[in-house]
Write a structure and sequence with these properties.
Number of domains: 6
Radius of gyration: 30 Å
Shape: flat
Helix content: 55-70%
Order of helices and strands: HHHHHHHHHHHHHHHHHHHHHHHHH
């Protein structure tokens, strides 16, 4: 018997058999209104009806029938106007009421014919300019942050920072970029570790195994007495960021810290381990110190263990699939039709999407490409069934 004839796919200007979104479509969608979109089955329904990718459609159209700013910009053939200092002053004078009267920040952007994302870099919905906007209106260049400034800020205290208008107020007063200031100073009046490190002319000490052991022995109480993790970092003259890779605020070492103190290599996760972990149950996992405790006990990487085991004692779908010696069944069009008929209640009764995957012996990750937890098929699933209906017998 000769093989069935192949029907060539029509080119539509977009990959995957989807039509390309045109300006005419945008105008038609804009005319639909919320009622028309609802009658079509929502945004996903409009996408199916017009054979366009649902994700791409959402870049242009909102569920309430309005085009997004991107859609409005596309229909506007003229180029956007550049944001000027005069605009910033006008926007600053609008106040929140003026912005709301214009239709919000999107409305101000449309009225002034500027990109809305660019506008939002300068203007807030409450009518105040962002620090970027304030900085732009300040004709003088920003001052470089000096160590003398750090020492002055360190003596301010929380009350004086609040009196100056918060960190943004301190930045304006001292004519420095607010984002740069925040790298060095906290709203509580304390310098960040970066600030402390800059004032400390000596180089930082390298973190050693002996430090890890001492930190582990100090416990949460010892860390609290030292002033938290930043206090421990200052006391032992190590970078605070590096310390946090190894130590938690509750006094426990991170898995990275535990792994470093354990000179032996990690064991490979075996099927026997999976069966043992599955038998533990939630109580057994908690008694071992959680998933990290099980990983330490069995000398396996905690990240790898979490790919197979959940904190409630159940194996993940990856774990279940590994223990199932039989290969997974291939997802068929008949399965898609059956899943589409399930509905949300029946999916939940089966144990969610993972439960449906176990029941029908298919990979859970593959199933989720086709089926949602609310019982509807994804656009990928709908497209596959549509192609199946048009496929020659």
């Amino acid at each position: 018997m000769p093989p069935p004839a192949k029907i060539p796919r029509q080119k539509t200007g977009a990959s995957g058999g989807k039509a390309k979104i045109t300006d005419a479509m945008l105008q038609a969608w804009k005319a639909l209104g919320q009622a028309g979109i609802g009658a079509a089955g929502g945004l996903a329904g409009v996408a199916r009806r017009d054979n366009v990718p649902a994700g791409a459609l959402r870049n242009y159209l909102r569920a309430d029938g309005r085009l997004t700013q991107r859609g409005e910009d596309r229909l506007n053939p003229g180029r956007k106007v550049e944001i000027t200092d005069a605009m910033l002053r006008t926007w600053k004078a609008l106040g929140q009421a003026g912005i709301e009267a214009a239709g919000g920040l999107d409305g101000v952007a449309r009225r002034n014919k500027v990109p809305v994302m660019a506008l939002k870099n300068y203007l807030r919905a409450d009518g105040s300019l962002s620090q970027l906007g304030e900085d732009r209106l300040n004709p003088g260049g920003k001052t470089k942050i000096t160590e003398a400034m750090l020492r002055t800020w360190k003596t301010l205290g929380q009350a004086e920072i609040e009196a100056a208008g918060g960190l943004a107020g301190v930045a304006r007063r001292d004519n420095v970029p607010v984002m740069a200031l925040k790298h060095y100073l906290r709203a509580s009046g304390r310098l960040t570790q970066l600030g402390e490190d800059r004032l400390n002319p000596g180089g930082k000490t390298k973190i050693t195994d002996a430090m890890l052991q001492a930190w582990k022995a100090s416990g949460q109480a010892g860390i609290d007495v030292a002033g938290g993790l930043d206090g421990v970092a200052r006391r032992d003259n190590v970078p605070a960021t590096a310390l946090r890779h190894y130590l938690r605020a509750d006094g426990r070492l991170t898995q990275l810290g535990e792994d470093r103190l354990n000179p032996g290599g990690k064991a490979t996760i075996t099927d026997a381990m999976l069966r043992t972990w599955k038998a533990l149950g939630q109580a057994g996992i908690e008694a071992a110190g959680g998933l990290d405790g099980v990983a330490r006990r069995d000398n396996v990487p905690a990240g790898a263990l979490k790919n197979y085991l959940r904190a409630d004692g159940r194996l993940t779908q990856t774990g279940e699939d590994r223990l199932n010696p039989g290969g997974k069944a291939k997802i068929t069009d008949a399965m898609l039709q059956a899943w589409k008929a399930l509905g949300q209640a029946e999916i939940e009764a089966a144990g969610g999407l993972d439960g449906v995957a176990r029941r029908d012996n298919v990979p859970a990750v593959a199933l989720k490409h086709y089926l949602r937890a609310d019982g509807s098929l994804t656009p990928f699933g709908e497209n596959r069934l549509r192609k199946a209906r048009t496929r020659p017998m």
